[in-house]
Every structure is written in structure tokens, then in C-alpha cells.
Input
Amino acid sequence: MQRPRFLERFLDVDPSRPALRLDRWWTYGALEGLGASVAGWLAEQGVRPGDRVAIQLDNGLDLVAAHLGCMALGAVRVPLNRHYRSAEVAPIVEDADPVLVISPEPALFPGRRVLARPGSGPARGDWPTPPEDITALLFTSGTTGRPKGVPQTWAMWETNLDALARRWALAADDRLHLVLPLFHTHGLVLGLHGTLLRGASAVVGPRFDPVPPEGCTHVYGVPTFYRRWLPAMRADPAPYRPVKLWVSGSDGLPADLSDALAEVLGQRVLERYGMTETVMITSNPHEGDRRPGSVGTPLDGVSLRVADGEVQVRGPSVFGGYRPRADPAAFTADGWFRTGDAGELDPDGYLRLVGRKKDLVIVGGVNVSPAEVEAVLARVPGVVDVACCGVPDLDLGEVVAAAVVGEVAATALDAAAQALSGLKRPRRYAFVGELPRNALGKVQRARVRAEIFGG
Output
């Protein structure tokens, strides 16, 4: 098996260049040696090219070593959320059927061979292309049902990351503050592999670490990160001002938070849009008009349309279909991937997401976007967090319900909601200590509906 061009580019970087700061700074040459050593260890465990290896580790040296070892051997990685419990990992492991699991919690994987951390062995650094070009099998979050396996290929990554580098002006002298979890596309593909493909460097840190280390030029985050970082940023903006690009994704960045961050940072946080199935789809520009509330325009090579209110895409970075459980409804008859996201394109081609299409609340036959209602309620003094969903109603079919975190009266919320047309105004409120979110901080509306409103 030949090496994919992606790996050739990684392996051809000057071996003395700094690559990742983990327990210490690792050069590109040292990472290549680490991968070869772990590949030898994997081979000793009976892993062969094309076999699947599940990895459930915290950000750090062991996790990166496990990924590099699989890459060097040509094994297919199955990243697992470090916080998942038995019931959550069970369907993923059943579908992925890994020959080995690397995790410190063997009790989560009954009947599977589990080792706590990667070891070292005789160098085995073939760095081949796995069968079918698949380098990783990632699983969707499963917030609305069984997680779905998404095979990701080197070809998907290379074409998309090159387009992203052009859009974000990424270069070899850039340094990323990488605090995103490396079991997800955002951290694994954009963060780790985006760095290695460019010959750049990254400081891998604990999640939610609020201060970028000196010399970092880029930070990728999610709205929850920025919401938690904002007080520290306001208290002392100096450590944050040298960063030349702040990026937010995985959920919508509220307009008021975007404005507050722009005031503190001296630049607007760049919003972009992607999925496990597609890698990155759209982005605002590095230079040019970053429009708050918009996720920008399609990347090079990505075709995008909005059909019946749904965002649909195709192109070389779009996956070929779910495995091992196919979903024929994932693609339209003419070959476009159905994202399930509801969106609108403005005259300049900028995309605005208005929620998950399946999350739209149908009130008396009128489509209501939860995100639109949330944006109004979030501006009420005392509101810390808010999530809206639809709940059954005998008269209208559904009405809007709002789960609110914060010290605020329902009358104040009702007053703010007068800015919305009647059918969009919440009919029910629940005041809670926190909202259910996934590992990347995205609100899980299905759980809001089920756990808070009993729907």
C-alpha cells in the first residue's frame, strides 16, 4: 500500500521543526519516531493495516501517540468521547468492531481487548494508506438516535484542509492553541491534522484553558469556551490581543457574545460551519467581511444549495455514506448530502443557519426557529443561558417552550418576546440550573424536550 499524499507532506517537513507541545515540545522528526514505535507495538498486539482501533483517552501524549501509531501502521482509528459511559460506547463498539481498545477504563468494554495506554515496540513506520483510503471512523453524537459511523478518508481531509488554509491564511509559522477534544472532527481534523499538514505547530492543552500560551497565533473554540473565557478577557485583554485568528464552530455564536468578543479582542471571532460527514462546508474570510450570525460562504470545492429550507452539500470532502448501517435517506436522489440543518442564503452567498430542520417548531402550520427565539430571550438581563424547543399543544399542534438558566422573571421574558410575532412567543418556561449539552457544548434539544418538558 502506498502512502497517501497527506502523509507524505507531513513526513517531508523538516524533522527539526517544532510540531506539538505535549509533555514537552516534540519535533516533526520525533513525532515520526513516536508513530513508528507505537506502530510496532500495535503490530505486536496483532493489529494489521485496515484493522480498527478504538481510542478513548484524554488530550495529551498518549492520545497523540495512539493516533500516530495507527497512522504509521495503516490502522483505522475510532475516536471515542472520553466522557462516554457503558451505554454510550456500547452501540459504537458494536458497529465499529475494533480489534483493540485503548482506554484506562476496561469495564466499559466487556468482551473486548482493552489496554490502558499505547506502548512502544520495534519501529514499524510504513505509513501506508489503509484499505479504501479510510483513516478514521468517527461516530455522530447520537443525540437523536443511535450514533452513525462516518468513514473519513485522507482524500477528504487533504482537499478540505487545503481549502481551509487558503480561506484562513494558515501558514507553517502559525501556532495553534489546541484545547478542543481530539475525539471530534473539530479538534482531530482541523486542529491536530490541520497543523501537521501545514508543517505548523500546536500547543495541546486541557479543555477550557482560558489563556493562550505565548507565541500562539490561532485559537479554535466553541461558543461555550468563549462564554466562559469572556470575563477573563475583559479583566485583562493583554494575553489575548496577540492572537491573529479566533475561530468558533460546532454551534451558533450568539450575536451579543460576538459583539462583546469583538470589543475585547479588537477583531470579530470568525464563524464557520462543518459536520463530521463533510468536514468544513463554509467559513467567513480571514480578510474581508466577517458577518456575525453568518457562517460564511462555501469553501473551494464545496457545492451548496438550500432546498426546501434544508442545507445540502456535495463535493470531494463529503463522505460516501454511513457504515456499517447505511442510511439511504442521507442523500437526495441527485446525490446531495442532506445536512438536516435549516438555512438561508443572502444575496452575497453567505449562509445563515436557523436551526436543525427537525428542530423547527411547527406552530399552527408556521415554522419557528428555536434559535431566533433564543436570540431574543438571551438579551434579557439576568438570562445566563436559554434553549427553546417545541412541546405538544392540542390547539396549535406545537408551541414554543423555553428552558432558562438565570435569575429572571417570566414577565421579563414575556415582555422581550413581544418583539416576536405571536406564534413565536414561548407559551411555557422552565427555570433550570443548566442545560443539557454534548461534549463540545452544543445544546441537545432532544434532551431539553424530554428531560425538562417531558415531551
